Amino acid sequence: MTDKPIIDRPIDDRPAGETAPQGALPADAEVEASILAMARAREDGKSIDPSDVAKAFGPGENWQRVLPVVRRVAVRLAKEGRLLIYRKGKPVDPEAFRGVYRLGLPRED
C-alpha cells in the first residue's frame, strides 16, 4: 500500500465486479453503482448520507478511508447531471461545496 494521501492516488480503473485486494479502496465503478442504487432505493425527494455508501465498502473504521472516493465519484456524477449534492437541504455547485453534504437523484419532472 502506498503512503500517498487518498486524494493524490490515481483513479481506480479496475473493471466493475472485480473485487479489490484486502485493504484496497473500491473501484470508482463500484462506488458509482452503490451511490446510484442507494439513491434509487430512497423515496422520491429523499437523500442519502455519503458515509452510508462508504460503510458498505469499509468494515469497522476503514469506511472513513472510502469517503474521499465517494466524494470524488459523487462530484463526477453531479457534473454529469446524474446526481445532486445537497448542503442544508439545497442543491450546491459540485465544484464549490464544503462540509457536511447529502446525495440525491435529480427529479424527473
Considering the chains and any ligands shown, give keywords for the structure:
mainly alpha; disordered N terminus; 3-stranded antiparallel β-sheet; 3 helices; globular
Q: What structural class do you assign from the helix and strand content?
A: mainly alpha
State the helicity in percent bands.
25-40%
Indicate the overall shape: globular
Head-to-tail CA distance between termini: 46 Å
Weakly predicted, low-confidence segments:
1-12
| Individual helix count | 3
Radius of gyration: 14 Å
* Largest β-sheet summary: 3 strands, antiparallel
Tell me the number of strands.
Answer: 3
Largest sheet strand order: 2-1-3
Taken in chain order, the helices and strands follow as HHHEEE
| β-strand amount | 5-15%
Mean pLDDT: 83
Short description:
By secondary structure, the protein is mainly α. The protein contains three helices and three strands.
Could you explain how this protein is built, in words?
Helix 1 crosses helix 3. The protein is mostly helical. The N and C termini lie far apart (46 Å). It contains 3 helices and 3 strands. 34% of the residues lie in helices and 8% in strands. Strand 1 and strand 2 (90-91) form a beta hairpin. It has a 3-stranded antiparallel β-sheet with strand order 2-1-3. 24% of the residues are buried.
Provide the fold topology:
Elements: H1 28-41, H2 50-55, H3 63-79, E1 84-87, E2 90-91, E3 102-104
Antiparallel strand pairs: 1-2, 1-3
Helix pairs in contact: 1-3
